[in-house]
Design goal:
Layout (H helix, E strand, L loop, with lengths): L3 H17 L3 H8 L11 E3 L11 E3 L3 H15 L2 H23 L7 H24 L3 H12 L9 H20 L3 H6 L27 H14 L2 H9 L15 H13 L3 H13 L5 H14 L2 H17 L3 H5 L6
Antiparallel strand pairs: 1-2
Helix pairs in contact: 1-2, 2-3, 3-4, 4-5, 5-6, 6-7, 7-9, 9-10, 10-11, 11-12, 12-13, 13-14
The structure holds 2-acetamido-2-deoxy-beta-D-glucopyranose.
Keywords: Signal
InterPro entries: TPR-like_helical_dom_sf (IPR011990)
Organism: Terfezia boudieri ATCC MYA-4762
Length: 334
């Protein structure tokens, strides 16, 4: 390809694929070639033919690639402060573009306006992630809480409700991570009540309860686990999410089953836990926590050569499941 749009698009696809197959380190090396994307060389003056004019400039690199480059460069330099600066720069640009779209005469394009609005929202989530990576949890909490303060009243679009559920999930995880369990609990909407057979004393009001999403179910289940309330945790992870909950309903319940197994270990039900973890591996799942926990379990219940055999068995299954990196990892010692 000879034009920059195609080249950058292909580059974006390549880098995304590298990240998806777990070769983020290669992507980090390759992305160094792009150097500083905020450099003047990456900007071109817009011609009236492109719909611009008045000396406006446009960035040569597609938005998605710019975001990916910021993340990958932050990873390779372990410098999230730098990423934060770039995110703020992009946010300034997005706000400017949004203003430009709104003031387009005679007819502002609602699609373009929506695009820049969603990019701005996406950037604020990325800022929160960068703050977490930097270990500045307090700032991340403040930032996410400010995002939750949605305007007062009025009808709320489904999209806004979903956005808020995403922010709520991040905030909840963050609260659990920093050990503020009461705040985590308070951020959750009440789970939907199963329809009760007896007539309710309180007739339903017109005020609709906040939607209870799948992510809320995960947080609700995570709380007892984080608090070490293992029996409650076992109950929570054994309970399927309410059928009404949406927002990326899970393709399977790998996470739930894995966490259930961990809770079972803490209550001494080792064989039950082992069965669940073995099943997960047999089904072709391979991820760090699963492999690690299964090997630890075998170490707990077996000795000497038996342990070695069992761990070799796990390694073979991990390999068969495509977990090449898992088996090759330094911690995976026989
Ligand atoms: C937990 O978070 C809430 C809400 O941000 C805050 O008001 C409270 O002070 C926090 N509690 C602790 C112990 O940090």
């Amino acid at each position: 390809p000879s034009n920059h749009t195609e080249i950058f698009n292909l580059w974006y696809i390549r880098l995304s694929c590298l990240c998806l197959i777990g070769a983020t380190q290669i992507a980090c090396v390759e992305v160094k070639a792009l150097e500083d994307l905020s450099a003047p060389g990456y900007w071109v003056a817009e011609t009236p033919a492109l719909g611009g004019g008045r000396g406006q400039k446009r960035h040569l690199v597609p938005w998605e690639l710019r975001l990916l480059v910021i993340r990958l460069q932050a990873l390779s330099f372990s410098d999230w402060r730098r990423a934060l600066v770039f995110y703020y720069e992009l946010a300034r640009e997005a706000r400017m573009e949004l203003g430009r779209a709104i003031n387009t005469k005679p007819n502002p394009d609602p699609v373009v306006i929506k695009l820049w609005k969603s990019r701005l929202k996406d950037l604020s989530i990325r800022v929160a992630s960068a703050l977490v990576e930097m270990g500045d949890f307090a700032a991340a909490v403040r930032h996410l809480e400010s995002l939750r303060k949605t305007g007062g009243g009025g009808e709320v679009e489904a999209e806004v409700v979903e956005e808020d559920a995403k922010v709520r999930f991040m905030l909840g995880l963050l609260y659990i991570r920093i050990g503020n369990f009461s705040a985590a609990k308070e951020s959750l909407p009440p789970p939907p009540q199963p329809a009760s057979p007896k007539p309710s004393d309180n007739p339903p009001t017109h005020q609709t309860a906040p939607t209870y999403f799948y992510t809320d179910h995960i947080l609700t289940s995570l709380l007892p686990t984080a608090l070490g309330l293992w029996e409650a945790s076992i109950t929570a992870w054994s309970t399927p999410p309410p059928s009404s909950s949406s927002l990326h309903p899970p393709p399977s319940t790998i996470l739930e089953r894995h966490n259930l197994a961990v809770s079972l270990v803490y209550t001494g039900r080792l064989s039950q836990a082992r069965d669940i973890l073995e099943d997960l591996l047999e089904e072709g799942n391979a991820f760090f926590a699963l492999t690690f926990n299964l090997c630890t379990l075998w170490e707990l219940v077996t000795d000497g050569d038996v342990t070695k055999d069992k761990k070799r068995d796990v390694a073979e299954k991990v390999l068969a499941a495509g977990g090449r990196r898992e088996a090759g990892a330094a911690w995976f010692k026989m």
